[in-house]
């Protein structure tokens, strides 16, 4: 959780164990990032992302996440935070109207960022 002076609980995110390995390095999934509309554009999302990256780095883990195709602002946020799009696929779930949903996978790896062993 993160807050601002005006909004004590301004946002939250979770980090969860993956049901199966995401690659050749240990990784966890970052997700459920939410920022209260009253606190948006104040750096809350960046603080939550950085906290997750610091937490993962302290445990020698990488992060991965999924973003739906229509969430272009979220894609830009994650790219600016150092995540790299590594895949695109059709989700196993559907949109509220029953249509297919395209999702993009983003990874943040310590090896790519040069932070491995620099904690």
Question: What does this 3D model show about the protein?
Answer:
The structure is a single chain. This protein is an alpha+beta fold. It is built from three helices and five strands, in the order E-E-H-E-H-E-E-H. The mean pLDDT is 88.
Mean pLDDT: 88
Compressed to H and E, one letter per element, the order equals EEHEHEEH
Number of H- or I-type helical stretches: 3
Q: Can you list the strand order of the major beta sheet?
A: 1-2-3-5-4
The geometry reads as globular
The biggest beta sheet reads: 5 strands, mixed
Radius of gyration using CA atoms only: 15 Å
- First-to-last CA distance: 23 Å
Helical content band: 10-25%
The first-level CATH class is given as Alpha Beta
- Tell me the CATH topology: Aminopeptidase
CATH superfamily grouping = Gcn5-related N-acetyltransferase (GNAT)
Q: Which CATH-level-2 architecture? A: 3-Layer(aba) Sandwich
Give the beta-strand count: 5
Structural class: alpha+beta
Percentage of residues in DSSP E strands: 35-45%
Overall number of domains = 1
Low-confidence parts = none
Can you tag this structure with a few keywords?
alpha+beta; 24% helix; five-stranded mixed beta sheet; 119 residues; 3 helices; Aminopeptidase; 5 strands
Topology overview:
Layout: E1 11-17, E2 27-35, H1 44-58, E3 62-68, H2 72-80, E4 84-94, E5 100-108, H3 110-113
Parallel strand pairs: 2-3
Antiparallel strand pairs: 1-2, 3-5, 4-5
